[in-house]
Structures are given as structure tokens and as C-alpha cells.
């Protein structure tokens, strides 16, 4: 690459807006940090995000993570748990009650451990992409235009 080319950074939003790197924002959210400053806490309780960052004042009430964190937990854990179950079944030939006794608690504990970092990552993603109210605009749906379509 020659020195005259610009960096291959994908820009979202208007060029005059402050840069919001996607990977850094997701990582900060996953580490329970404010995606804007990286210093303030993102969660005030287990899965309750703060409304505003205590350090930089960033408005985090716009997050709409909804069902995506549990969906991602199921997607990730499903592959790990089923893979682990099949691997141990091949190696040890355990009865089904033993598999249940092993894998059911592991599934519950792992889900409880990873849902907060995944939800934080989703909030960081939404913040970086200026989704919902994070871009400074209203999140309400646009009015349906009935006049401009074909007759
Ligand atoms: Zn902050």
C-alpha cells in the first residue's frame, strides 16, 4: 500500500461525527465498560445497563438489545455443549442420566456467565453503528408516504 492511500477503516454515519470503531466498541461493552469512554460501567445490575455513563455522560438508554443476547448465547453454547456431549459420549459411553447430570448444570452456569458480556457486546455494536437513538436521531418509524408511489 502506498502512503497516499487512506486507511481501510469503514466509516459509519456522517464524516463530521466522532469515530466509533466497531471492534473496540463491542469489546468495551463485553468487558462491562462504556463503549464511548471505556472507563465507566455499562451495567448497574446483572443485565440492567446504566442510562448514562457515570464518567463521560454518554446516553446509553437508547440500547435495544432485546432478544439478540439470548439468541447468541443459545447459538454459541448449543455448539459447545452438543460438541462436548458427543465427544464424551464417544470417549466414555456414559448412560443418559450421567450426561444430563454433567451437561445440564454446565449449560445453565455457562449461559449465566456469558449472557452479560454478550449483551454488553450487542450494546457496543448498536452504539458503534449509531443504531436506534445512538446516532442522535429519533428512533420512531418513519411515516408511511402514500403520495409518491405509482398509481
Ligand atoms: Zn463513558
Overview of this structure, please?
- With 151 residues, the chain is mainly α.
- It has one domain.
- The chain contains three helices and no strands.
- Helix 2 runs antiparallel to helix 3.
- The longest helix has 33 residues.
- It is elongated.
- The termini are far apart.
- The model has no long low-confidence stretch (mean pLDDT 86).
- The site of zinc ion (ZN) has 8 residues, from loops.
Compile the SSE list and pairings.
Elements: H1 22-30, H2 68-92, H3 96-128
Bound molecules: zinc ion.
What does this entry show, briefly?
The chain is mainly α and 151 residues long. The chain has three helices and no strands. Zinc ion is lined by residues 34, 36-37, 40, 53, 55-56, 58.
